[in-house]
Amino acid sequence: MKEKYLINARIIDPKNDLDEIGGLIIDSKGLIKAVGKKVANGNIPSTADKIDLKRQILIPGIVDMRVFVGEPGYEYKENFRTLSDAALAGGVTSVVSMPNTSPVIDNVSMVDFLKRRGRDKSRINIFPSATLTKNTEGKQMTEFGLLKRKGIVAFTDGVKTVQNPQVMARIMNFASQSESLIMQHAEDNILSEGGLINEGEISTRLGLKGIPFLAEKIIVERDLSFLEEYFCRYHISQISSEKTVSVIKKAKNEGKIFTTGVSINNLSLNENDIGDFKTFLKLSPPLRTENDRQSLVEAVNDGTIDVIVSDHKPEDEESKRLTFSQATTGATGVETLLPLALELFHNKSVKLMKLIASITSNPAKILGINKGSLEKGNEADLCVFDINKPWIVNKDILKSKSKNTPIEDRKLQGQVLKTFVKGEVAFERI
Amino acid sequence: MAVIKKLKAVKIEQNHLLGIQDISFSQVSEILQQAKTFITLNKSDSKKIDILRGKTQINLFFEPSTRTQSSFELAGKRLGADVMSMNIVNSAIKKGETLIDTAMTLNAMHPDIIVIRHQDSGAPNLLSQKVNCAVINAGDGRREHPTQALLDALTIINRKGKVEGLKIAICGDILHSRVARSNIYLMNMLGAEVNVIAPKTLLPHSIERLGVKAFTDMNKGLENCDIVMMLRLQNERMHGSFLPSAREYYEYFGLTPDKLNKAKKDALIMHPGPMNRGVEIDTNLADDINRSVIREQVELGVAVRMACLKIFCKRN
After folding, report:
1. How far does the CA of residue A281 sit from the closest CA of chain B (Å)?
2. How crowded is residue B300: how many other Cβ atoms within 10 Å of its Cβ?
3. How many other CB atoms sit within 10 Å of the CB of residue A80?
4. With contact defined as beta carbons under 8 Å apart, do A215 and A195 qualify?
5. Which residues pair with A411 in a beta bridge?
6. CB of B313 within 8 A of CB of B55?
7. How far, in Å, are A314, B162, B182, B268 from residue B187 at the CA level?
8. Which of B52, B123, B219, B243 could join B118 in a cystine, given CB atoms 3.0 to 4.6 angstroms apart?
9. Alpha-carbon gap: A328 to the closest alpha carbon of chain B (Å)
10. Predicted confidence band at A41 (pLDDT cuts at 50, 70, 90)?
11. A360 within 8 A of A14, measured Cβ to Cβ
12. Mean pLDDT of chain A
């Protein structure tokens, strides 16, 4: 591989608090050789490729902590190749794949398969997660130590929550031994039973059973109580309500160490968008009130929330062309994560550095992976985007195999131009 | 998929009766005016006319129903339509066919009107997007039951002359009731003041936002009311999950002569049926011909449904 000189870019690297005009050199092995204003136009060897980025923004490749891929079992919804295409078009170079496949990822034998398929079929870095409990039944814990040694970066039941408090307490107690990362989807199944959307005026009007905010808050409170006794690496996958934000803020102020994520959907949409029973907006956690949305945005800005995820959940048309209560939960999003997040910058809700950190350095740090920053010696996974480019979301131009985008026809500002993986151009918008 | 797109392309704008929320005051007036003329017809010797002759009406009932289904069937027949009632218990839906597939199949038979009852809120909306005929909602989940509210309004007008300015109490399981929701929208639209009365566990979240006052005390909620609408309490809600017992419910929320005294002297009692005597309503009150208009509601139900069929069928 030839050396590459990316010059004339606005470089933003939250981990090193860097925001300056400069360049980046990729060496012949695809690693970052130098970065910053010292990399200028002059002294470029004639053997190197020069790429003028014309003052567009260069950031580390995005790390998306919550992505569902259909392999194995649901290849008709998304396979590694289509996921990879969608991710690259969105500047995402690393994803944590959720274990809710068929069969679920709950034992060592599945991990090799995933890693091999991920490597052969996709161009992005797949970091697989495994389940917390066997078959996500919430009863028996999985082999954290052995799975972690095989390359599992995190443990989560994905769309499910460990309901039994004794099982959860023991998981947190045991997992600390192998320093495994626990990611909880916070929802009390009994409180949310049969629930379809946020409990409130909209659920009353639409006649749909509501999911109370308490279903989320009570699990977060329970787990944070356990965390006092059984310290472990603990991450709340996604939160959705103002009340949960308060609980987390208080716990962090008390010095508890844990991290929190939020879906870009809960930052960009609210329950009113469900309109006339739009099943693409049937999500878990549900979209809540505008007040909840605003408090989540504020929590990203003040650091209460560490990570923004796409919660990319491809679903085929047959799973969505049903009545609201029969339709499957979830929406695609990996390709629109960055442009939609930029909306929060354009409307002056969140600072750009904070926004970029929440999709690059923060998730990488939580996962303990060497990604999400522009350090010298790291693999050159990069995203170049035009922060002002206007475009309109159209499901037919999105690359995911499934077309269930929750933001069809939305006018966005900001689009990915180029994505590099390991120093190679893996995506380029023409 | 290609087939669906093709059908979409030739689809013309339809008028459907999906809910009171979706229709205007003038549409409501038109339905009620029309229904009045059918009251007389229904009392005459020759009840059948032919304004819907040649039209096909399909009743698609996914939930068991006696009175609504027979009321719609009779309404269609009296207007001269060919009425087909589909019994979903034995149909392909139970074998895994989706609502949309069923809709496409029925659509191919060129019906002029489909009357649907479904356990899922929003099912009539989904159906209406996929068929080329008018869709009438005969009750969906907890969302709406527009023809019930319309027949209630007609009953009130028949007895009181108008709805405007009246004080109406709706009592019982508001949370699970589509009848309550449709009535709240309609009575508000027609200018009544609406109280809802229920134990807190059976009051939906933010119900006041629908333009009602909420009460948990019957004596206060019924004060000075002109109309008392009682709702049915489903058996499965009585034992411990929402309420301690039917006995406790009757004590506080059952309509008794004592509680009714708080309402106006000439207040009318209504109930969409079927009734649980001794649970939500005192059995003598239910049969009191001076106060109870429950049987009249059923009678006018046919007239209202005839009006809806005529008006929405004609628009196509």
Report:
1. 14
2. 26
3. 22
4. yes
5. A392
6. yes
7. 43, 11, 8, 15
8. B123
9. 13
10. confident
11. yes
12. 96
Find the mean pLDDT for residues B259-287: 94
Residue identified by tokens 């005969």 is B138
Quickly count: other Cβ atoms within 10 Å of residue A49's Cβ. 13
- DSSP letters along B230-279, please? E-PPPGGGTTTTSSS-HHHHHHHHSB-HHHHTTS-TT-EEE--S---BTT
Percent of chain B with pLDDT over 70: 91
Looking at the complex, does the CB of residue A205 fall below 8 Å from at least one CB of chain B?
Answer: yes
Q: Are B260 and B291 in contact (CB under 8 A)?
A: yes
Report the residue count for chain A: 430
What per-residue confidence (pLDDT) applies to B9? 43
Give me A171's structure tokens: 């998981």
B14 shares contact with chain A (CB less than 8 Å): no
What DSSP designation does B292 have? B
Residue A43 has pLDDT above 60, yes or no: yes
Find residue A184's DSSP bridge partners.
Answer: A236
Distances (CA, A) of A173 to A138, A228, A232, A365, B149: 15, 11, 7, 22, 57
Question: A19-37, pLDDT tens digit by residue?
Answer: 999 999 999 999 999 999 9
Q: How confident is the model at residue A353 (pLDDT cuts 50, 70, 90)?
A: very high
ipTM of the complex: 0.91
Partner B contacted by A257 (CB < 8 A): no
CB distance A178 to A145 below 8 Å: yes
Using a 10 angstrom Cβ sphere, with 0-12 exposed, 13-18 middle and 19 or more buried, the burial of residue A377 is exposed
Predicted local confidence at residue A430, as pLDDT:
85
In sign, the C-alpha dihedral spanning A272, A277, A280, A282 is positive
Band of residue B237 on the pLDDT scale cut at 50, 70, 90: confident
Q: Give the Cα separation of A40 and A132 in Å (integer).
A: 49
**Integer distance in angstroms from the first to the last C-alpha of chain B?**
25
Residues 6+ apart with CB under 8 A from A80: A69, A71, A117, A118, A120, A121, A122, A126
